[in-house]
Amino acid sequence: MPFIAEDARRPGHTHVLLITTGSVASIKAPLIVKELLSYSNVLVQVAASKSSLEFYKKEDVERAGSRVWTDDDEWTGTFKIGDPILHIELRRWADIVLVAPCSANTLSKIAHGLCDNLITSLMRALSPSTPTYLFPAMNTLMYEHPLTAEHLRVVRDVVGYNVVGPIGKHLACGDIGVGAMTEWKDIVKIVVDRFQLAPKESAP
Ligand SMILES: Cc1cc2nc3c(=O)[nH]c(=O)nc-3n(C[C@H](O)[C@H](O)[C@H](O)COP(=O)(O)O)c2cc1C
């Protein structure tokens, strides 16, 4: 079934679009989805880069109650004029976009306006009124590379995205330093606070 924003949006709900990229921190995606869905009236869709799926299983996100969209869903080989276009439908659907984690590669692509896969096409087509948060996660030297500072400046000051983190800790690559994704619970908290979400009533 094609994804059509108008049909998939539910009145009174918060529609969270989580984008995952090829950083080890993508292993947190199922946890982020599960936690978001523990709040009332929240729907989550996930759009994944090819390399991010090296770090979590689509099935784990689906078990938590969300769907993972990939380049293969965008390019099905059956497109006809008038068919919905996935990256446009997903951006129409979203009330908030979280790029968590945001790899150095995707950060660079966004800063340069590249749109050569589902996630970057979606970002390029986003309305400026959709709140968008980037959570960079990369090796310390990637983070300290002068190009990273320039890419972050562009996404903050030119594009208007919120950049949160990275934080310092023992990184998956063995280095200790700044470059880790903001704690996944703090990412969820940003959405909870912004939309004043209430936990689902627990069953009696
Ligand atoms: C095991 C492994 C871990 C990686 N971790 C990171 C990372 O934490 N941050 C990052 O920016 N790139 C990391 N990379 C490199 C990215 O996966 C690579 O640049 C990829 O092209 C990113 O593609 P994407 O931005 O489309 O997801 C890692 C690569 C490997 C093989």
From TrEMBL:
One of its GO terms (molecular function) is FMN binding. InterPro entries: Flavin_trans-like, Flavoprotein. The keyword Membrane does not apply. Keywords: Coenzyme A biosynthesis. Residues 15-194 form the Flavoprotein domain. One of its GO terms (biological process) is coenzyme A biosynthetic process. The keyword rRNA-binding does not apply. GO terms for cellular component: phosphopantothenoylcysteine decarboxylase complex. Belongs to the HFCD (homooligomeric flavin containing Cys decarboxylase) superfamily. This is Flavoprotein domain-containing protein.
